[in-house]
Structures are given as structure tokens and as C-alpha cells.
## 1
Amino acid sequence: NGVTVVRFNNQPEVEAIDLSLTAPFPALKELVGTKCLKLHQIFVDQEKVAMVPNGQLAELHSLMFSGCSFSGELLPRLLGEYNSPIGQCLTRLDFSSNMLNALPPRMPEVCTHLRYIDLSYNKMDRFPSVLFQLPHMIELNMAHNGLLELPSDEDGDIQGYAARCWPALQLLDVSYNELSTVPYTFGNLRVRSLGLEGNRIK
């Protein structure tokens, strides 16, 4: 039935991953890497992941690369900027402990089923507005990023805007950032866990 999980853990010298030997790809459901500090390329069938034909990796639901020092270059290639099929069935995305300062604008178009996102310990001082376009979100972790503010609706602070965008949200963690206020945009969130500690909110 092929490979269902591929893990690359504690490989600080690895610069590229070649998934060619894991075929057939439709069985691959999880792609996990931790502390791959030099990783900057992922290959499938001797091509960069940006070149993977549609249908490959069709059932991948978890993409987790934590502590890999990723900046803003690899993530767009993985998640839709270059017609990558990765993302079509993703429900879980963990890019915590990297160096990301933004998300790809087209990510919501490709990753329409995302439910669990961990972007903690990155370099985002602005909350990515593209996250509001992911209506199935259940858990969102943006802790330890240096966020300066949370976004308001384009027409001003509208009570409950975030609640309408994320009707299923159960956990929102924006702790240990640089927030001084929480706008009405985030009013009426019926989450089980809301992390705000470690900010400058009075």
C-alpha cells in the first residue's frame, strides 16, 4: 500500500529531501521533519516539489516541519504559489520554530481543508489575514511571534468578525507577543482555550 508516513527528525545537516523512493505517493499521509536546520529543497521524482504533477501526494493530510529554520522561500513552493499539489487535502500544518514572517497569499485557495495550524515561534509581527479565509479552523497557534496587533475588519471593528470566519474554532493562542489590545474583530469567539498571556494588554 506504499508509505504512509515519512519522518526526518534531528537531521541538522540535511539540505534536501528526495521522496522518489516513497512511491506510490497517493498513500503518503504524513510528511514530518524536525530540526532540519539546513533543509531548503524537497524533491519528488527528481524534481522540486513545485514541479510535482497533479495527483501526486493526493492524500497528504499532515505537513509538519518544526525547528527547520525555514524562511519565506520554501513555504510558498509547498503551498500553492507554484501549482504544487501539496495542500489539497491538508488538515494539519505545523511550521513552528522557524523563521517565517508571512504566509503565501494563495494558501487559502490550495489548503481549503486546514483545521490545525501551528505557527508558533516564528517572526511574524503582523497577523496573516489569509488565515481568516480558512473556515474549517479548529486550532490556531500564533504564540511567540512578536505580533504587534490583531487585525480589524476592513470596515472597522465589527463585533464577532473572527467568530464568523472561524465558526468551529476551539483554540486560539496568541500568547507571548507584543499585543496591547484585542480588537472587537475577535469578539464572541466561543473557544475552549484563548491564550493571551505574556502580552502588553492592560
## 2
Amino acid sequence: AMTFWNFDHRRAQEKLVMALALLFAGLLLHSFFNRGPKFQGKPAKYWANAVVRGDKREHGVAVIALLDLGPEASVPVLIQALESKRGLLYREIWRKLPAVLRTRLPNPMVELNNRYRVAQVLGEFGPTARAAVPQLIVALQYPSSELKAAVATALGEIGLEARPAIPLLDALAKDTGNSEFVNTAARAALKKISDGADIPSPR
């Protein structure tokens, strides 16, 4: 007959096996999310998040890191960073929380306000950031003037592949309700995209 000690010993073994399985699964997940090339031991995702955080001490290094890692690794995570990860509901709830709780949670407004930095980095990749054009077109319609100007500039740097953005850029350039620097950025982007019309599209 099974004694209490044997039963308790078997339960302990089952718990140990489960703990080891969970540990192994955690290591697999960590490996999955941290795969790919790294800069200073950190993947592109980390550096894209650093751009969003807007830490002045880290921003310069983050830009260098993303450019060093290249478009294949960096552009997809920058596209994700350009999107608003924190929804409207989260922003409303965050605003109503006591200050002591807000300091312990991600500030959704920082993420929103720093998206222009993400657009600037995408622009640094030029035509190799062409995969970002659809999300840049969406961002071009956000109310922030700083973001509109940065997105327009990035689209101009991408060049020929940014042709789908021409109608919005044209409307933006002619909209007298915008800040002058937004109109100027839109006009410059239109010129760069048009100037690239006779240049073969990069593959």
C-alpha cells in the first residue's frame, strides 16, 4: 500500500518536474524574443524602446545601435514602436490614477509624444525603410505637428517607395491650418519622392 511519505514524495517530484518545465519554457521564450543581432548585448527591440522612452542620455546610443543593427533587424521593431501601444482606455485610466500609482506604470503620453523620434530614425534608413510606409501614412494623420513634420521628412528620405503617401503629403503641404514647418516638410518630401521617380526602385 502507498504510504503517506511515498505519496508526498511523488507530489514533490511532480512539482519539481513542473517547475523545470516552466523554467525551460521561460528560457525558450526569452531566447525567442531576444534572438537576432545585438548591439552591446541588447537586441533591436530594446533600442527601439529606448527611442520611445526619450531618455536623452540613451537616445544617441539607441540611434547608433539601430543603424548598426541594420534595417532588417531595426525597421520592423521601429514600425511597432511607431504604433500607439497604449490604447485610449488605458490612457484615460492612467490619467485618473493617484500619482503614486501613475509613477509605477508606463506613461502612455511619453510613448505618444516621442513617436516623432521613431519617425526620424526610420528616415535615417532611407529607401531600406520602405516597409514602414503604410504605418508612416497612418502617423501622418495624427494631430501632432512635430510628428507630422518628422513623418513627412522620413517619407521623403524613403523616396520612390513612398509614392502612396503623395496625396496626403500634397494635402498637408497646401493646408494653411498647419504650422509652416509642417507645410515645408511636406513640400520637401514631395520633391524628393518626385525626384526619385526616374530612379529604379531598390530591391
## 3
Amino acid sequence: QNAPLGINIIYEQDWNTVLPPLDVSEIPHVGDATEEKLKSRIPPFNTIADIRNTPPGFDFLPFVGKQKFLAPILHDLAFGNDERVVKADGPPQSFSRIETFEYDTKDMKVIAGEIGYFGSDLQARLNKFKKLAGTVKVYYVHAANYEDRKKRSVQKKLDVPTDNCGVIMGKAMDLVAEHNLLKTELYSLGVAVDKLVDVGTPL
């Protein structure tokens, strides 16, 4: 993911080379439960190419769980086609920052510095939109697992929603420690806040 917004731009002429080898979890709306169902199929749907190679009219409904809306559009999404209307003026649902390190690292000072930078940026965004965060997430990719191209996450619900940089940083560092994320070197790391509520919302 490209800093600072964690966005990769894939141009249409590159769709057929970049998308097929990616993990099926990279398809929008494919969460952990849907991913598990897709990969448990025999033969499994492990990559976007596997979804693309299904015959016309293939029924994905048994593999999408509660995400029933996903079944009829999953094949199109695998080709980068999404005809749904984008609501650009909706309220923000989350904010995130992610960094791909120049060199793989498990240096706590480097990690703490990045998380501190992320925390300051997330606080500024929360303040701008007059929001408080209810959950802190840490996204990570271990260098040893880079080839599977899967970004993993851990999260912690906050006792009280906050826009405080120190609290966000503290929870993120707690997650790094509790889940032993520095057991091996990290390729990338990110922090996100979601479950946003308006400042002044009764708790």
C-alpha cells in the first residue's frame, strides 16, 4: 500500500496482470468469514483468478454467508468492475494510515515512531470531522508472509470513544505487544480508527 493514504492505483490496462494473483480477500467486501468459505471450497477459491475462472452464471451464494448482496457481483468485482454508485459525500466511517517500510524491521523504536506519527495524523483527521473513535486497529504484513499478499489486522475496542493521539498510540502499541507482532520483521504496518461517533454524542 502506498503512503500516506494506503491506496494503490491500478490502471485499467494493468487489471489483467495485477489482479489475478492477488488473494481473494483483496476483493471488496470479502471479509474473514467469506474468505474462509471461499477457501474451504473444493477446489478452493484462493485467488482472484479462481473467481474469474468460474463459468458464467456460477452461484456464489453458498460462499458469501450473510453478505448475500455480494453473490451476484463477486465475479464482476474480480474483473475490477463495480457498477454501484459511489456516495462521495457520505460521512467518514473510518480513518487509517499505513506505511510500507524501506527495510523490513522489528525495531521497537522504528515501530513506536511510526505509530506516534500515525496517531498524530489520525487525531487531526478526527478533529477535522468532529469525530471520536470507538475502535483502534493495527494492520500488518510480516515480511515472511509477504508472498501471500494478505494484510492482517487486530483490534481493540476503546472503553470511551476518543480523539486523543496518546490514547490511540497507546492502544496501538498494546496491540503490537499483546499479539507479539514483532516476533518477526514487518513489511508494512498501519493504524486505523473506526466505529466513529460525533463529538458530543451521549455515551
## 4
Amino acid sequence: WQCGLSVMYADFNSDDSDYMLLLKGVNANASMFRLAPEAAYTFRNNHAVGVRFQYTNAGGMVDTATADLLGNFNMTLENLNASSRSLSASIFQRTYVGLDNQGRVGIFWDYVLGVTRSRSQFYTGDSSSNYSLKKKIHLGFAPGIVYFPMNNVSIQACISLAGLSYNMTKVYSDGQFSGVRHAWKAYSNLSILDLNFGITVHL
């Protein structure tokens, strides 16, 4: 058996910055926190199956920014706010491959099947009663690297590299249901926001 915990925290601040010749005078900040406990059973050498729960909290604010499209179009953005909280549960199958003779360093990859429920808001001003609720079923692939500083303790880093998901989003305006969207999505990318670091105890 093995029990582990993965954590990710990212913080972003911008003060009077310019981006890609399109956004000027950007004053913004954003942060994201992710916590994911997991447990797995090793059913044979270098192969394990387990369950993972994940909580994610993200938020951001744009105080001021100016969008300039080649000098032909200008738009000023002020006091934009966004927030999102989500809970997910998933099962995964993990395969390890050792990289040294002592078995201290290796790579692994996870095949993940999970369900996520999230609540998001995007608004201007101090508060809003508009929000969206999303349910997602996803299948993903997440490779990583692992190091064993002790025989029964490992530390690892992994990233969600590719996946396929079905999304159902319900939109609420002034607290009342106003619409629903259904969408299938596929992705394959490298993003620092999908990077997780964790520690695992092998029993």
C-alpha cells in the first residue's frame, strides 16, 4: 500500500506590464492552490491502482488594463474579478520504470478517470450573484518523475499532459437558472498550472 499527498501553489502579480503588444498597463494578481491526497495498492511489481481526491481554489483580479489592437481599437478594463473552487474524485493506474540500479530514481505515468464539480464566477465590481456550476468527466494521462530518499518514502513531480473530457455547465444569473452548455474537450499541452509535487509513504 502507499499513501500520498500532492500540493501546488502558484501566485502571479503584474504591475503596469505589457503583454504581446496587445495588453498595456496591466495591473493584476492571481493565485491558485491545489491539494490532492491519494491512496494506492501495489498489485504487482511497479504497478499500482488507487484513488485520489482533489480540492482546488483559484482567484484573480485585474485592477486596470488596456487592450490595444494595432492602434485601431482600444478598450479599457477595470476591476475585473474571477474565482473558482472545485472538488474532484478519480481512480488511477500507475506504472513505474526505474532509471538506476539502486531503484532510487524512476519515471512513472498515470492513467486517470475522474469526476469534477466546480463553481466559478466572473464579474466586475465588488460582488455578483451570477455564477456557473460545471460537472466534468475526464480521462487523462499524467507522466512524472519519482525519487526515493528512503526505502519507504518517495517524492515526485507529475504533470497532466493530455486528456479527454465531457463538460456540462449550468449558468445562473441573479441566482436563477438561465442556461446549460454541453461540450467535449480534448487537450494536449504543457502548463505550469498542471504541475504537482507530492510525497508518498509506501507501507
